[in-house]
Amino acid sequence: MEKTMRVTGKGKLSVKPDMIQLLLDATKVCETYEEALRQSSEQTEELKGCFEELGFARTDLKTLRFNVDTEYENYRDENNVWKNRFLGYRFTHGMKLEFDADNERLGRVLYALAQTEGRPEFRINYTVKDPEAAKNQLLAKAVADSKEKAKVLAEAAGVTLGDIVTIDYSWGELEIVSRPVERCMMSAANGAADSYAMDIEPDDIDVTDTVTVVWEIG
After folding, report:
1. DSSP secondary structure code for residue 187 in this structure
2. Which of 43, 55, 172, 183 could be a cystine partner for 118, CB 3.0 to 4.6 Å?
3. Tens-digit pLDDT profile for the chain (218 aa)?
4. What is the dihedral of CA 33, 36, 41, 47, to 10 degrees?
5. Run of H or E residues at 38
6. Does the model's pTM come out above 0.90?
7. What's the start-to-end Cα distance of the chain, in Å?
């Protein structure tokens, strides 16, 4: 029977973010379904035009999700009985705009966003342009860690470390993101400036992953 040793290695990596993801949420309750669709389309067109003036392509604004649901509210009637009534149709349009991590450009984008009629809520994520490169480095570190642990265990057990039998990796989605700014809504700004002074210095993103390696021992 083949003798083996199963060792899990852990890779750790600190990645400097170099890309901003601006996540936008536009929502509104309208009287009719058709009005909800129209209002959503108008808000989206306004945002595309706003960002186009800043040098973005209209296609840079990506839809992440879109839905229209009925909206109700609870109330007490004249007999103090709780009931609910129909308010209308709420559209929710989640969008994403990505660009290089640049505080000056971010300031111009947020200022322009504050001038729009809809002024959607937003979140700012910092991530990396090439997540695959970071993931590959992480896997290499995890395998190296498994090998180092296997050597120590083999020496301590008085056995010889042989070839790799299998490598087990889950291939799950690895999120490389920092969220220094949570959900916000900008107020319309007055004055001659065309940008907000942004001073955001996101910390490096710490990511970890594991790989399990089965080694022959003799």
Report:
1. P
2. 43
3. 688 999 999 999 999 999 999 999 999 999 999 999 999 999 999 999 999 999 999 999 999 999 999 999 999 988 899 999 999 999 999 999 999 999 899 999 999 998 898 888 999 999 999 988 989 999 999 999 999 999 999 999 999 999 999 999 877 777 889 887 765 555 555 444 566 667 778 889 999 999 999 999 98
4. -160
5. helix 33-52
6. no
7. 11
